[in-house]
């Protein structure tokens, strides 16, 4: 009887150890899965933060580029307007000078005596001979 009782105790002890080992194994597996899940979340949030940072930097860079382009375009248009204004002023000055010179020429042309008319190949209106 003692031997059977001893065997039963051993069997119960063995089963209890088995259950305890299984429970510990289940707990360990659950902890491991939870740890892996937390690690994945951490990695994902880190990647998302990096991606957001890159996007923000990209947007800031694009804004800077847009601002610089607008400044360049404004400067270029101002230069073109100045160039056109200068060309127009030069053209106006040239036109004024030309008109002044023409008026002077016209005034001088009225005062000049008219040259004597010559016939075709006849100086002083007379035939000089053969060429």
UniProtKB/TrEMBL annotation:
Residues 1-39 have a biased composition (Basic and acidic residues). Residues 1-43, 108-131 are annotated as: Disordered. Transmembrane segments: none annotated. Residues 4-128 form the Coiled-coil domain. It comes from the Eukaryota. Pfam families: CCDC34. InterPro entries: CCDC34, CCDC34/181. PANTHER family: COILED-COIL DOMAIN-CONTAINING PROTEIN 34, NY-REN-41 ANTIGEN L15 -RELATED. This is CCD34 protein. The gene is Ccdc34.
